[in-house]
UniProtKB/TrEMBL annotation, chain A:
Keywords: Membrane, Transmembrane, Transmembrane helix. It comes from the Bacteria. The keyword Signal does not apply. The chain crosses the membrane at residues 7-29, 41-62, 74-90, 119-142. Residues 11-143 form the DUF1468 domain. InterPro entries: DUF1468 (IPR009936). This is Tripartite tricarboxylate transporter TctB family protein.
TrEMBL record, chain B:
Keywords: Membrane, Transmembrane, Transmembrane helix. Residues 20-440 form the DUF112 domain. This is Tripartite tricarboxylate transporter permease. InterPro entries: DUF112_TM (IPR002823).
Length: 149, 506
């Protein structure tokens, strides 16, 4: 039983304190102004200090409380993130259809046993829906394919 | 008499073909995602926010609202058939709805939830219609200091009344306020926290923030959970849905009580549909002559909470539309959609945009009638939809998120923002932080700063103005009372925990 603390709140509190400190310091780059005429730094500085305070309030009790360690599900996390990133990088350069294929394929990797045929069918179907709905229907200016750059 | 003229205006607006179409799309989608576990109203409304750039304001808001109250209808279906709530507020429906299904009374449960939903919604709309203009009139006399105090109260209430630790809730609100600071300062033109990135000079895109926090993060967290197959065994026929006279009689009063509870909790900031349905279940259990029936398929355990969450979904619009103070994250997104359309929410909305305000309310009536039609004869379709595998759904959700956010500014940068907030949102889920209050802070942050600055300018730097004005002073008093109550509850809980820890170690 020894050594298990409430790491959720310890990590969260520490991150908030760091973020709040950085936010308040960065806000000082701007003009603070006076209470009567508040400058652009006034409100953010107060927010940053409050974030630090609440980070501390979260961190301190958690140090003495039993709890658990957060366990990320790395496989879906990484697969979904790369899928979105790949879409962002391909959509403007190659067009909507290739980007949809890349996204569907990478997203399928989130499962332990991806189904190749289902993914292929899904990619074709989603591309068709996307082009019909967004490019044709709503007139969003993303071409289905883009060859010459 | 004014009321009828206004409602007539509203109905003429809501019966316009385009508005009707968007109303139908909204309630249809709402029922669909309400039925399906693993995707909620918050994620869906975030996904459809970009569409508001392409359609007129009334139609857009009618659709987004339809998703919200439509999801309240659909949510209980999965609870009754699979013991798996389709929406958070339908979790209560599992308690007695699933046992009813086990006893072969799933059809009755489904019919009665639809009836209860309709009763709750209708009464909720009447309350909304009656009280909104009154409240808006009162709010017209608010000054900047009063507004600041009211927003403070809204944020503190949202953070402390929501589930989970109030410290975490307030932390999330503060993070939202901080994120809201990014962009150009309205009063001085100073670029704040933009790091020289031109896409950030208008602030962080609400669409990207909401889609990342609620869309991408939810997909990541749901994949492993949802891939386990599930199927409703039962076939729901129209005949199996006919309730007995006893079912009707046992439900009449609970529905009214549920509506009352829901109407109050819906209008309060921070409470909302989920708390309303749990509260109403607890009340039914308390007033019942035989409380032991609950949990074993008691009909009032299904109908009362169902009326409550639907009434709450309607009255939640009261503070949002009349004061510009959203009670929960969904309402914050609605408010965001209005701001995107260039409509300033607040007490002037009723007088300056009557067609929008009354059109929206009229559309609630129409939408609820559509929902009854969608839910009663067509229930079989929704039951079949429960067997759509998540492995088909989640790539589609991701794709709609990516294209949707891209379409707002035609910039791939916004997709990267979604990715970043998706990672942040998943991190929050892991650390057991509820991201919903963050959106409230994000929306209200810039408005609060503006009102604070204006109030201080008017009072010549004297902070006592917040205590001298009676309206602002009473808001602040309630805020402090809430905070004191939260601290008291927290201390008591910690003492209990310590005592429990001591007891186990001995």
């Amino acid at each position: 039983m020894k050594g298990t603390r409430d790491y959720n709140d310890i990590i969260g509190g520490a991150l908030m304190m760091a973020g709040g400190a950085w936010f308040s310091l960065y806000a000082m780059n701007y003009n603070l102004g006076t209470l009567r005429r508040m400058g652009p730094a006034y409100f953010p500085l107060c927010i940053g200090l409050l974030v630090m305070l609440f980070g501390l309030l979260l961190l301190l009790p958690a140090l003495r409380r039993p709890g658990s360690m957060p366990l990320p599900e790395w496989r879906p996390f990484l697969a979904i993130c790369t899928a979105v990133l790949a879409f962002a990088l391909t959509v403007e350069r190659f067009g909507l259809v290739p980007a949809t294929f890349v996204l569907t394929a990478l997203a399928a990797l989130a499962e332990l046993r991806p189904n190749l045929r289902l993914t292929a069918v899904l990619a074709v179907a989603l591309s068709a829906i996307a082009v019909a709905m967004f490019t044709q229907g709503l007139g969003i200016p993303i071409p289905a394919f883009r060859w010459n750059h | 008499m004014d009321m009828f003229a206004n409602l007539a205006l509203g109905f003429s607006e809501a019966f316009a073909p385009q508005t009707l179409l968007y109303c139908f799309i909204g309630v249809f989608l709402g029922t669909f995602i309400g039925v399906l576990p693993g995707i909620g109203a918050l994620a869906t409304i975030s996904m459809l926010l970009p569409l508001t750039f392409h359609v007129p304001p009334t139609a857009a808001l009618v659709m987004l609202a339809g998703i919200y109250y439509g999801a309240q209808y659909g949510g209980s279906t999965a609870s009754i058939l699979l013991n798996l709530p389709g929406t958070p507020s339908a979790a209560v429906a599992c308690l007695d709805g699933y046992p009813m299904g086990q006893q072969g009374r799933a059809g009755v449960a489904l019919l009665m939830t639809t009836v209860a939903s309709f009763v709750g919604s209708s009464l909720g709309i009447i309350i909304l219609t009656a009280f909104s203009p009154l409240l808006a009139d009162v709010a017209l006399s608010f000054g900047p200091a009063d507004y600041f105090a009211m927003m403070l109260l809204g944020l503190v209430a949202a953070a402390t009344l929501a589930q989970g630790s109030p410290v975490k809730g307030i932390s999330m609100v503060l993070l939202g306020l901080a994120l809201g600071m990014v962009g150009t300062d309205v009063q001085t033109g100073q670029q704040r926290f933009t790091f020289g990135i031109p896409q950030l000079s208008d602030g962080i895109s609400l669409v990207a923030l909401a889609m990342g926090l609620f869309g991408v993060a939810e997909v990541i967290a749901s994949i492993n959970r949802m891939l386990v197959g599930q199927k409703a065994k039962e076939k729901i026929t129209l005949r199996s849905m006919v309730p007995t006279a006893r079912d009707m009689k046992d439900s009449a009063l609970p529905m009214l009580r549920g509506t009352g509870v829901g109407a109050i909790f819906g209008a309060l900031p921070g409470a909302g549909a989920t708390i309303a349905s749990f509260m109403s279940y607890a009340i039914e259990k308390k007033v019942a002559r035989d409380p032991s029936r609950f949990g074993k398929g008691a009909i009032e355990g299904v109908t009362a909470p169902e009326s409550a969450n639907n009434a709450a979904a309607q009255t939640a619009f009261i503070p949002t539309l009349t004061l510009g103070i959203p009670g929960d994250a969904v309402m914050a997104l609605m408010l965001g959609a209005m701001i995107i359309q260039g409509i300033q929410p607040g007490p002037r909305l009723v007088t300056e945009h009557p067609e929008l305000f009354w059109g929206l309310i009229a559309s609630f009536w129409i939408g609820n009638v559509m929902l009854v039609i969608l839910n009663l004869p067509l229930i079989g379709i929704w039951v079949k939809m429960l067997s759509i595998p998540y492995r088909i759904l989640y790539p589609a959700i991701l794709l709609f998120i990516c294209i949707g956010v891209y379409s707002v500014n035609n910039s791939a940068f916004d997709i990267l923002l979604v990715l970043i907030f998706g990672i942040v949102g998943y991190g929050m889920m892991l650390l057991k932080f509820e991201p919903a209050p963050l959106i409230l802070g994000f929306i209200l942050g810039p408005l609060m700063e503006e009102h604070l600055r204006r109030a201080m300018l008017l009072s010549r730097g004297d902070p006592m103005v917040f205590l001298e004005r009676p309206i602002s002073a009473s808001f602040l008093a309630v805020t402090f009372a809430l905070l004191a109550w939260a601290i008291f509850a927290l201390l008591r809980q910690q003492r209990a925990q310590r005592r429990a820890a001591l007891a186990t170690s001995l």
